[in-house]
Predict the 3D structure of the following.
Amino acid sequence: MKQINSVNFYQEWVKAVSDRKEEMLSLWRKNKELTLFIKGSENSIINTISKKFGLLSYERDYYSIDAILYNPEDLTPNIKPNTFWFRDIKVAFEHENTFKSGIYQELSHLLITNSELKVLVTYPDDTPIKELEYFHKIIKGTRHSKDISDKENLLLIFGYENNFEWEGFIYKENDWKSID
């Protein structure tokens, strides 16, 4: 089983969406269908990625987290079958189709979620330099920003419809670290 971190999550993301590029491009501007393609369907991108790390995916909103990647041991023991109460989360995943619709809310939500990795995927028109500065300010203002930086466990992924390009950014105390 592959260890999960920001860099290898990003790499698996790019591979998974690239393998299904034409399908994703056909859904790019159809918010509901794109969301189901990413999370919430049997053959979703998140399901594909979870398997690469030997994890399971829970793709129905859990306390407003869009999707969770977890191990079976992360579930609360001795509860009714087919119910999901988590005591640990490997990956908290947020997906926002519309970049200009309050990404700070998704980011803030990730910041108060206890998970090994926090991932936010969205689709700006071009590299959002001013917004990256704003997002950095949001994170830096938390009491655990140094821990997030040291662990490199907050990942932003930006997807661009033109040329089907992807950018990954990891939070660091002084700036964002770009993933090549």
